[in-house]
Amino acid sequence: MQSKASKNLMPLYLSLILIAGMALGYMLSSSVGNNNFFSKSNNNTLQEISTLIKSKYVDEIGMDSINTYAIDEMLSHLDPHSVYISPAELESVNSQLEGHFTGIGVLYNIIDDTVCIVQLINNGPAKKAGIEVGDKLLNINDSISLNKQNISEEFIRSKMRGEEGSKVSINVLRDGVTKKINITRATIAIPSVDAAYMLDAKTGYIKINKFAERTYEEFMQELEKLQKAKMENLVLDLRGNGGGFMRAATAIADEFLGGDKLIVYTQGNKTEKDEIHCRKDGLFETGKLVVLIDETSASASEVLAGALQDWDRATIILHTPWQK
Predict the structure, then answer these.
(1) Pairing status of strand 144-145 against strand 167-174
(2) CATH says 91-189 is which class?
(3) DSSP secondary-structure letter at 32?
(4) For a designed S-S bond to 215, which of 20, 176, 248, 286 qualifies (C-beta 3.0 to 4.6 A apart)?
(5) Helical packing angle, 246-256 and 215-228, nearest 10°
(6) What is the Cα–Cα distance from 193 to 182, expressed in whole angstroms?
(7) Is the pTM of this model over 0.70?
């Protein structure tokens, strides 16, 4: 009877021993700094190495820089159009695509260790406040020096830009004299249509530098003005246009192509085919059209030029660097 009772209690004894062993193992793992005894790490090799460097390396390391190098190296093995945009660069990229930014409205070059104003945005805060082309920027708010070696454009941009209505004082050197100029920041539009005018009595010209949020709206405004000037032919200049929002390019293509023509389709290894067709009557479906491109016309520019070429709607002219 006693032997039979012991056999009945055997599963209970084994369960207690197993629980005790698990508890002991958990305490031992905690003592060496590992609290994931019951879980398996989901980190990949890159994450594991990054963690080891951060926790074990003898010196302090800027992990953001190391991660950026690793990301850039990975993307370099894909294609030329796959790039990493860092958080520091994201605001500038978004400003370009959104078509506006908040700042003082200047363009500058860094010559040696000096920030020199090379262009002022018309009706911008800096021009209204009295900044002139050729001014050398010395410091901001009497404390932040801009006259030093290895100064970065990101640093300058971060100090120039700010909230709309905020004020900034800038000391400039002009003709050997230092001047202090107070400026109130404002929202400034970044046009994507550089130029639009009549080349002759019948031929219009439109230059688009990128495809941003307001590009289609800007293009339509200029196209309507040229049509009122009795335009019959159009030269569309996409040289130097690196792309942007594809929807802006397809909307412009719709103004040149009639019917239900296919403009472009996208299809990926893990995504289904998505076709974009013309949806309405365009403003310039019959006039003679010439499109200028070069080696820097990419992305959305290629979509627009390619659609017009595929439907024999335009003459595409490729401008190469050795052409004069």
Answers:
(1) unpaired
(2) mainly beta
(3) T
(4) 248
(5) 20
(6) 31
(7) no
> For the packed helices 87-98 and 153-160, what is the interaxial angle rounded to 10 degrees?
60
Q: Left (φ > 0), alpha (ψ -120 to 50) or beta: where does 42 sit?
A: alpha
- In the chain, residues under CATH classification 2.30.42.10 are 91-189
Q: DSSP labels for 102-157?
A: EE--EEEEEETTEEEEEEE-TT-HHHHHT--TT-EEEEETTTEE--STT--HHHHH
Q: Across the strands, what pairs with 103? A: 186
Is the C-alpha dihedral spanning 273, 279, 283, 288 positive or negative? positive
Q: Where in the chain is the domain with CATH 3.90.226.10?
A: 193-318
Measured CA to CA, the distance from residue 138 to residue 104 in angstroms comes to: 16
Tens of pLDDT, residue by residue, the chain (324 residues): 445 555 565 665 556 666 666 666 666 555 544 555 444 556 677 778 878 888 888 888 777 777 777 888 888 888 777 778 777 677 667 766 777 788 898 888 888 788 899 888 888 999 999 999 999 998 888 888 877 767 777 788 888 888 899 999 999 999 999 999 999 999 888 889 999 999 999 999 999 999 999 999 999 999 999 999 999 999 999 999 999 999 999 999 999 999 999 999 999 888 999 999 999 999 999 999 999 999 999 999 999 999 999 999 999 999 876 555
HEC letters along 225-276: HHHHCCCCEEEEECCCCCCECHHHHHHHHHHHCCCCCEEEEECCCCCCCEEE
CATH class held by domain 193-318: alpha beta
DSSP string, 166-219: -EEEEEEEETTEEEEEEEE-EEEE--SEEEEEESSSSEEEEEE--B-TTHHHHH
Contact call for residues 292 and 319 (beta carbons, < 8 A): yes
